[in-house]
Amino acid sequence: MRHYENLVIVKPTLTAEEIQANISAIEEVITSNGGEIAARDAMGMRKLAYPLGKNERGYFHVIYYSVAPSAINEIERRFRINEDLLRFVTIKYDTNREVTAWNQLVQKAQKKATQPAGEAKVEEVVIPAALEQANEDEE
After folding, report:
1. Are the C-beta atoms of residues 71 and 90 closer than 8 Å to each other?
2. Which single residue of 98, 101, 105, 136 could bond 93 by disulfide (Cβ 3.0 to 4.6 Å)?
3. Where are the alpha helices (DSSP H) in 6-138?
4. What domains lie within the chain, and their CATH numbers?
């Protein structure tokens, strides 16, 4: 079994339930072909670099899994049939170095999935002294 990563972009015009149903269908295609899903990463709605068929946004979802190489043709064929997918890309991790990187990505995705939504990283915003002084002068 080899390690793979699939990035799929789902149409933004679908409801949240329809998007989740499509993601579940995609995962079912992988598992029905003998794949084992290691991790998922829902990246959310994002702006596309260029419009894809009148769509300027898309719902991005990454799936990390292991499957026999012979199953990839069927998985990609089923992805092409699905009209709700704007694009997909399959990445194969083959060498020891790539497999190590795949394992790190899986751990990162699992950590992100287990992290509660309220504990997201909060970055500090540094306000320049000149801007801070201008705000005090207005008051």
Report:
1. no
2. 98
3. 16-32, 72-81, 96-114, 129-138
4. 2-138 (3.30.70.60)
